[in-house]
Specification:
This protein is of the alpha+beta class. It has two domains: 141 residues, no CATH class; 106 residues, no CATH class. It is 38% helix and 17% strand. It is built from nine helices and nine strands. Strand 5 and strand 6 form a beta hairpin. Helix 2 packs across helix 3, helix 5 packs parallel to helix 8 and helix 5 packs antiparallel against helix 9. The longest helix is centred in the last third of the chain and has 21 residues. It is globular. The two termini are 31 Å apart. The model has no long low-confidence stretch (mean pLDDT 87).
């Protein structure tokens, strides 16, 4: 596990170190730099291992743009969930576009791919900007940690649920709809079968967990050959947007839970 230093975090996502919010925020906005939360989580044994920031066109907004940090515990404390380990996923901005949000995540070791797993009906812990943010985030990290057994039960259900080729095709169609919209057949440069291609032999099986992971990895890492609407050869782009990363991850997890339920698997609510 490679723990990111302050210098590495700053190079990747400078908004973590914002000294003030966007000038348009109201006087009621309680500004707390994201780095304060990062340091508090690290003091509790959650270490930053990945960071990213939404690209913005105007340079002056770089310091307040939406950003994401993934945290993992040290190897002796990491909680394994199948072939993955648990993470905390923190998102924030200082331009009024997002509150502090803390989610439970999974990092799949075999493909070095991260997920965001919704917890309950509302997802993770959402905290409005205010002076008590650090304490509320730390409390939220404990609450989310208590949900790990439920996520583990879900992964076990996905692993034990077998899907046919036709069902896998339907899953991939649903994923393309989540990514490109209901008119994905016209707007998507790739076909459902492209999402189901395995990048490694251990993923080439018929479990719902495998279908989910193949689809998620192919969507997020991009590089799939396809055709644009004009018929030009193209490749899909990796997902680098913080907003789209969290949104699509949550939606794919919910889609997988729905498929498991349709197949009769029990997934804890």
């Amino acid at each position: 596990m490679r723990i990111l230093t302050h210098d590495q975090l700053h190079r990747t996502a400078p908004a973590i170190f914002a000294q003030e919010p966007d000038s348009a925020v109201s006087e009621r906005y309680g500004f707390v730099p994201t780095i304060n939360v990062v340091d508090a989580l690290q003091a509790e044994g959650w270490y930053p291992v990945r960071a990213q920031q939404t690209h913005v066109r105007h340079a002056e907004r770089q310091s307040v743009a939406r950003h994401l940090i993934r945290f993992r515990q040290d190897p002796d404390r990491q909680i394994a969930v199948g072939d993955s380990v648990t993470e905390l996923v923190l998102t924030n901005s200082h331009d009024r576009s997002a509150a502090f949000q803390l989610d439970l995540g999974l990092f799949r070791l075999v493909c070095l791919n991260g997920m965001v797993t919704p917890v309950g009906d509302v997802g993770g812990i959402r905290v409005r900007h205010g002076k008590q943010i650090v304490d509320e985030i730390l409390e939220g990290s404990i609450q989310l940690s208590h949900q790990v057994p439920r996520i583990a039960e879900g992964v076990e259900a996905f692993q034990s649920t077998l899907v046919s080729r036709g069902e896998a095709q339907l899953f991939a169609e649903g994923a393309l709809s989540l990514r490109y919209g209901d008119d994905w057949a016209q707007s998507s440069p790739v076909q459902p079968g492209d999402l189901l291609e395995a990048r490694r032999s251990e993923d080439a099986n018929g479990s719902l967990w495998s279908v989910f992971n193949r689809t998620q990895e192919n969507l997020f890492k991009g590089g799939l050959r396809g055709r644009s609407q004009s018929g030009r050869a193209t490749r899909t782009r990796a997902i680098n947007s913080v907003t789209e990363d969290v949104r699509l991850n949550r939606a794919l997890w919910k889609l997988t839970e729905h498929f498991a339920a349709l197949k009769g698997a029990t997934v804890a609510a």
